[in-house]
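TICKET: design request
STATUS: open
ATTACHED STRUCTURE:
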């Protein structure tokens, strides 16, 4: 091989790096080009798939699969300027946010269907309650409506049904359901962004994934433990602080709200908790997006939380 050929080969990465650094914008016509190059695949074939983009340049051929819903991919290049352009073009925040919201909408739909199913089962169950027993319950309701402190006498089953119906009638369902939807979405978005960040940096080693997921999973476990305490003492300091911290508020606050707002949960606590959760979600999604844009382009390196933290807060 002549010296001239060797020099030409050495210069190729520099020339490509210069090109992708100077001309790094993804244009609409690039999508048409990508689809012609990947015939017979269509956008509907990409969701859930993974890909390898060797010689990724400024990342335009990785951008479209990710936009179509690909689960992830590995983009490789030898020039740092090309990789920098690829990281910028991947637009980590919108891509990450789109994946998170899409899956969260499915989960919320399932919860709403379950709520509707439970409501239907309650209505159907009333048809199977004996008429005499329902008559006892109605008598108790009339006595209670008249302001009589002495509850009408009845069987144990009638008293339980009466208490159940009273709790349904006196509960602020608009606030409870609204808060449930907010905390479900907020808690899901908060944690899913962290899980997505871990998913973007791990390879195929389950032990590696477990070691990174443990710091995220532990707050969820502790939240359920605190919730059992908050049910017994919804106004206590532990319940208060756990209902404000975004890591635990989606679980703990929902165990306090049924006890009454603003009696047990003042409005300022509820609003502050919601604001902190929304702010926490925006921060974790921003941080996860910065981790995602670097982690998805690397392969073979064993990440740590310290490394991921550097990726999130490094300049550029």
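STATUS: resolved
RESOLUTION: sequence designed for all positions
ATTACHED SEQUENCE:
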């Amino acid at each position: 091989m002549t010296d001239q050929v060797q020099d030409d080969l050495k210069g190729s990465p520099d020339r490509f790096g210069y090109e992708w650094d100077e001309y790094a914008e993804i244009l609409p016509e690039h999508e048409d080009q990508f689809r012609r190059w990947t015939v017979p695949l269509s956008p509907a074939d990409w969701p859930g798939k993974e890909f390898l983009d060797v010689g990724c340049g400024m990342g335009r051929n990785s951008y479209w699969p990710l936009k179509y819903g690909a689960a992830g991919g590995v983009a490789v290049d030898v020039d740092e300027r090309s990789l920098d352009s690829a990281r910028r073009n991947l637009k980590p925040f919108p891509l990450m946010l789109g994946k998170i919201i899409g899956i969260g909408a499915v989960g919320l739909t399932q919860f709403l269907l379950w709520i509707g199913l439970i409501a239907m089962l309650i209505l159907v169950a009333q048809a199977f309650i004996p008429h005499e027993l329902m008559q006892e319950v109605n008598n108790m309701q009339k006595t209670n409506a008249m302001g009589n402190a002495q509850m009408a006498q009845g069987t144990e089953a009638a008293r339980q049904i009466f208490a159940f119906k009273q709790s349904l009638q006196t509960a602020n369902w608009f606030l409870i359901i609204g808060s449930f939807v907010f905390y479900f979405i907020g808690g899901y978005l908060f944690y899913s962004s962290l899980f997505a960040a871990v998913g973007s940096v791990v390879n195929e080693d389950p032990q590696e994934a477990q070691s990174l997921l443990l710091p995220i999973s532990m707050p969820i476990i502790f939240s359920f433990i605190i919730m059992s305490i908050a049910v017994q003492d919804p106004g206590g300091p532990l319940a208060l602080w756990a209902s404000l911290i975004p890591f635990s508020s989606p679980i703990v606050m929902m165990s306090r709200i049924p006890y009454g707002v603003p009696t047990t949960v003042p409005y300022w606590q509820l609003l502050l908790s919601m604001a902190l959760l929304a702010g926490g979600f925006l921060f974790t999604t921003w941080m996860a997006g910065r981790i995602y844009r670097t982690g998805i382009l690397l392969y073979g390196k064993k990440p740590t939380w310290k490394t991921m933290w550097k990726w999130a807060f490094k300049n550029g």
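CLOSING REMARK: The two ends are 40 Å apart (CA to CA). The longest helix spans residues 92-126.
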